[in-house]
Design a protein that fits this description.
With 171 residues, this protein is of the alpha+beta class. It has a single domain, classed as Yope Regulator, Chain: A (2-Layer Sandwich). It is built from four helices and six strands.
Length: 171
């Protein structure tokens, strides 16, 4: 019998923590409906697992969801590191524009019926993503200009903070 989404996401969070090295286990997390987000420094830079039944995919990635200048600055930094990232996480990991102001590094896997083995796979992939990308984020964080650091993510209409759209194009 398939798992409920909330149970699945809770298990992914628990197993991700187990897979992470001790120095990366101190993060803030939240589960909302079909997504799990965790961050270390600011919610504008967060790791996400997003279940999309419509496309039958599960996204696992690092999102930059600030004002355009903030997100694109991070995309530029990460673009230079993508050969290293893909060497460690695989060639299916992509850097792309998500909305006119948000960017992300992500991969997707098939959305199979939610189960404990799938939760283990997603948790392992998320922990690998964090283990590869978080040291880069920490190295580059010191180079974030204070004026970009202070920018607050723009609120979207309709009261939904995280509106999803089809990617417009690859960076």
């Amino acid at each position: 019998m398939p798992m409920r989404v909330r149970d699945f996401m809770s298990l992914v969070l628990e197993r991700t923590t187990e897979h992470l090295p001790p120095e990366l286990r101190r993060f803030q997390a939240r589960v909302r409906f079909v997504w799990l987000q965790l961050h270390y420094w600011t919610p504008k830079v967060h790791y996400e697992v997003w279940l999309t039944r419509k496309t039958e995919r599960i996204e696992i990635g690092l999102h930059f969801e600030g004002e355009r200048e903030f997100s694109y600055r991070w995309a530029e930094v990460m673009a230079g590191r993508m050969p290293e990232v893909q060497a460690q996480l695989g060639p299916k990991v992509e850097l792309e524009e998500w909305t006119p102001s948000w960017t992300r590094i992500h991969q997707t896997i098939p959305y199979d019926p939610l189960s404990e083995p799938l939760a283990d796979d997603v948790a392992r992939r998320l922990a690998e993503t964090i283990s590869v990308l978080q040291p880069i984020v920490e190295q580059e964080r010191a180079n974030v200009p204070p004026e970009l650091e202070a920018l607050v993510p723009a609120r979207r209409g309709g009261g939904r903070r995280f509106q999803r759209r089809t990617p417009r194009h690859r960076l």
